[in-house]
Amino acid sequence: MEEKKSLKGAWTYLKRTYKFARKDKKYLIYFLLGCIVYCGISILAPLLAAKQILALTNETFEQLFWISLLILGIELLRNLDRFFNNYCSNKYFFAVQKNIQLEVAKETLKINTETLNKNSSGVFIERIGTDSETLADIFVMIIDYVTFAISNIGVFLSIFFLNKIIFLIFLVFLLILFFLQKYAMKKVQEKRKIQREKKEKASGFISELVRGAKDIKVLNAEESFLKKANEIATDLGQATYKMIRTRATFRLWNGNVRDILDFLITATGIYFIVKGNLEVATMIIIFSYRGHIISISDNIEGFLENLTRFTLAAKRIFDVIDNKEFPKEKFGTEQIQKVEGNIEFKNVSFEYEKDNSVLKNISFKIKPNETVSFVGKSGSGKSTIFNLIAGLYYPNEGDILLDGMKITSLDKKSIRGNLSIISQNPYIFNMSIKENFTIIKEDVTEKEIIEACKKACLHDFIITLKDGYNTLLGESGVTLSGGQRQRLAIARALVQKTEIILFDEATSALDNETQKEIQESIENMQGEYTILIIAHRLSTIINSDRLILIDNGKVLGEGTHEELLKSNKIYQKLYNLELKEKKENKE
Ligand code: ADP
Predict the structure, then answer these.
(1) Which CATH superfamily includes the segment(s) 343-418+501-509+527-587?
(2) Residue 368: what pLDDT?
(3) Residue 284 phi, psi dihedral angles, 5° rounding
(4) pLDDT above 60 for 220
(5) Which of the following CATH numbers is that of domain 422-497: 3.40.50.1240, 3.40.50.300, 2.60.40.3500, 3.40.50.720?
């Protein structure tokens, strides 16, 4: 029952995988034809070799010369065929792998934020990397094994005509080997599944170690990170060892069964020869071909092993593509081409985790082209409000309206295409400054980039660089300061020309000059865009049209800085605290 299910599963996965291969199937067909030629050559070669020996013993040297020449031709053809097969299978493999990788990457980007946060990056790195290889390899592998199996089965059937008893012994042993293999495969598969999970963990940890290298050093946490790396690597090593041990144990049994088979074939052969029922020559043929017959079991083992490995990889790949294991973001179907910038929270409640409410029945309205700052203690729910506006999470209760339409009813483009988020530590791509713009908007012009950078107060800095806008950023180029990163993110948002800009001001104490420049770039945008700011510093607050005070997930006051300062005790406390901190910092 289980077996049937898993075979059916493999078949379903094969059909689904073929969809990635369909476009490049011509290489697969060429490969198949190449394999058929190879099969023919394999059968022809020993026949010609036999003729060669005959010609040699009969001393027909002219015939021997021509046969040898023919053998040379056939062998050259075999080499050519092998080269051709290799070319086709590789061409096919890389094309299909690319198709699979692109699809998995595309689907990974659709996964909802909650699921992405819960899973380590290794989960997706491993699937896009290793598992896609296994999937891309499957059809070439099947053709390979089937070709070999067919030529070997041909040999096996010929034994039937030579001696039926020996044929029967082969058959029984092949069946024993087959069931042994099936059992072993199941066990290896279980171990492999665990090993793949551990590998995911290790990959995720390595990517964290590389990405966080700077912080790890500053935190002086190298030792504990290496200790953890050691634990994870040991764990992976053990899981891999267990898988290999299971396979090795099976191979031991497999070898024993083969040796017994060898012995039985020899004994039976001798018995028949002694009885006069078998010629020595026939026995020699059977004996010299037994390798081919036993290879059938290797072919089946290889085939089953690859098929189970494929099934596991396919499950892991299709788990990402399907919507069950890693749920995707949900969007509605209604569209707004160009939003005006009205945002409304209507009795919105939200929790990341059950029974741990973060936003508690909050309501507020924002008008187009208004600049509104959210203020409040850290952890009060300000970033969560941004996450909800960007559709990264959905409210548990209440509605969020964009130009009067529920954002749950809007399609992806209407939400994401109309707003930009400038986070505290924006992600700057390790490309040139110019490419940081073209990657988000292909048709952006040089003029637009320069204008945006001028508005974001970054242009003057960029022109001091030797390569100007072509300067490489990140690992292999110039490292930008925190303030410059934010200003570049502002410029990126400006070229996107989204009506709404969500700005999460950096908490880290930026120097006064940088602060002033960021402030200036925001001022440059004010009045033209709907700007929502999570304000960590007083300077931004003062220039906002309005402040919304958030405390413990509730709106505790709205108004201008002066209004709140006059009437709101919590705001007064917060303001005085920041003033005090500022003073202390100065001292
Ligand atoms: P603020 O931006 O005001 O500092 P946040 O909106 O980031 O506050 O956080 C509000 C609360 O939600 C905090 O208690 C925080 O721990 C929690 N929180 C934030 N993000 C997540 C998340 N992804 N999963 C679970 N809890 C979260």
Answers:
(1) P-loop containing nucleotide triphosphate hydrolases (3.40.50.300)
(2) 94
(3) -60, -40
(4) yes
(5) 3.40.50.300
- In this prediction, residue 42 carries a pLDDT of 72
**Pocket perturbation via mutation, ligand 1, pick of 354, 378, 384, 424 by most ligand atoms within 8 A of CB:** 384
Residues 6+ apart with CB under 8 A from 268: 165, 166, 169
Neighbouring C-beta atoms of residue 227, cutoff 10 Å? 11
The tokens describing 456, both together, are: 């974001």
Most confident of 26-40, 43-57, 527-541: 26-40
**How far is the C-alpha of 375 from the C-alpha of 551, rounded, in Å?**
8
Q: Is the dihedral of CA 560, 563, 566, 571 positive or negative?
A: negative
CATH topology identical between 343-418+501-509+527-587 and 422-497:
yes
> Which residues have CB under 6 Å of ligand 1?
117, 352-353, 358, 376, 378-384
* Count of beta carbons in the 10 Å neighbourhood of residue 444: 18
Q: Answer yes or no: CATH 3.40.50.2000 is held by domain 22-321.
A: no
Task: List the structure tokens of 406.
Answer: 């529920």
Instruction: Specify the pTM.
Output: 0.75
Q: Report how far residue 254's alpha carbon sits from residue 233's, in angstroms, rounded to the nearest whole number.
A: 31
Locate tokens 């790949």: which residue? 317
Rounded distance from Cα 262 to ligand 1 centre (Å): 69
Instruction: Tell me the CA–centroid distance for residue 393 and ligand 1, in Å.
Output: 12
Contact 496, 445 (CB under 8 A): no
